[in-house]
Amino acid sequence: MAPSAIVQECPQCAASITGDSRFVMWCPECEWNLRRPDHDTPSTRPGPLSRLRDRLDARFAAGLHRQVLDSGVGTPFRDRGRIAAYALASAVHLFALSMLVGGVWLLAATWPSPFGAVFGIAGVGFAYLARPRFGRLDRDAPALTRQEAPALYDLLDRVAREAGAPPVDVVLVDGKVNASFGTVGLRGTRVLTIGLPLWQILEPRERIALLAHELGHSSNGDVRRMRYVDSAIATLYEIHGAAARVHVHGGLRALAISIVVNILTGLVRLLVVGLIMVLESLTYRESQLAEYAADDRAARIASPVAVAGLMDKLITRGPAAHRHLESAAHRGGDLWEGLREYMAAFPETEEERLRRLARLERARVDATHPPTHLRAAFALSRAYGEAAIVTTDDEMERVQAELDAPAGRIAREIADRARAALYE
């Protein structure tokens, strides 16, 4: 028994509990204290509307899970939600274009009328605000080029070929317990972002599964990753932010003006929020199907067991690594060595607690993803044989060395964010 292990009697069912004093003591028999003691407080307890939304979402997630288990994920390019989303996104883009054309015409046709100048400039300004946005490369995250990381890009090229995806253009490395893929800029630069903490806690085959899942998104028809619809959603968020309430100081006239302006901007915000909700609702089902499709590709490339292992790490060691980094950043020392030591001593009882808690709470990466434990079950249901890509220890060591190059900079950024959070 480890020095930090303790044994006590469960106060609920009287079963003997063996646990680690550094973690939450809980009972595997009756699940007493499964949640952290500070979890269920009045401030964190959901209201009636949130509980209703959770029940509806749980029903939807269960139904979609049964569907993909029974008939697979397919590629719903002609899904009615996709068609409606494209139509609505087109309306958003055409409205911005019409404001630009109308503003320019008004300036040219009425010049030098002050009336025409004011409304013409307003139209052009609104068109600029509502212009399509295709994202930009995160200049703060360390980037690895093909010359700097040949082993990593060679592995990515192999995964991309198996996934039927184009090669990655840029790899970014950051300090999040996550990974992502997307396209940015007018040229559609393909960017893979790897969270170094997540990479550190995965086994080699789970790392292949992670890469296969992310690259699968570039060819699985995920409408949220399609720049046309995504840029329309980004435009609506920009308009919502610009239509903020105004506060005018002065006499009655200024007060009356501010009331009228706030009523108008309030109506704009209400309309924009409605459009955002409709667009996101139209893409909700398909974006979750796209996650299952990416998991299916990853299961074929890295094996179903590897994908299930990745999902398990996301709901067990992932949250633990995040909490450890937040606390360790204040103590100094080698952040990554500390993380490896922490994970090496991570008890199975805490893993099981987090695993059960994730199932109970239907934990997921974010709202566009199905619950992670359902994704793991789906991966294990895939009838794939051996992994399509198998790496040697030497290959993965070279890849690890290339990813470790910016590790010092990322550790400093994590420490800086932790210190900054103390003053917020």
Looking at the structure, what is the overall shape?
A: globular
Q: What is the helix tally?
A: 15
**Count of DSSP E strands?**
6
Biggest sheet statistics:
4 strands, mixed
Biggest sheet, spatial arrangement of strands: 3-4-6-5
Q: Which oligomeric state applies?
A: single chain
Arithmetic mean pLDDT: 85
Radius of gyration: 25 Å
Structural class: alpha+beta
Distance between termini?
A: 42 Å
Number of domains: 3
The ordered H/E elements are: EEHHHEHEEEHHHHHHHHHHH
Proportion of strand residues: 5-15%
Poorly predicted regions = none
Can you give keywords for this protein?
four-stranded mixed beta sheet, metal-binding, 60% helix, alpha+beta, two-stranded antiparallel ribbon, 7% strand, single chain, globular, metalloprotease, 424 residues
Overview of the molecule:
- Helix content is about 60%, strand content about 5%.
- By secondary structure, the protein is α+β, with helices and mostly antiparallel strands.
- The protein folds into three domains: about 1-35; about 80-130; about 145-424, no CATH class.
- It has a four-stranded mixed sheet.
- α2 packs antiparallel against α3 (about 115-130), α6 (about 205-215) packs across α9 (about 305-315) and α8 packs antiparallel against α9.
- The radius of gyration is 25 Å and the shape is globular.
- The model has no long low-confidence stretch (mean pLDDT about 85).
- Belongs to the peptidase M48 family.
- This is M48 family metallopeptidase.
- InterPro entries: HtpX_protease, Peptidase_M48.
- Pfam families: Peptidase_M48 (PF01435).
- Its cofactor is Zn(2+).
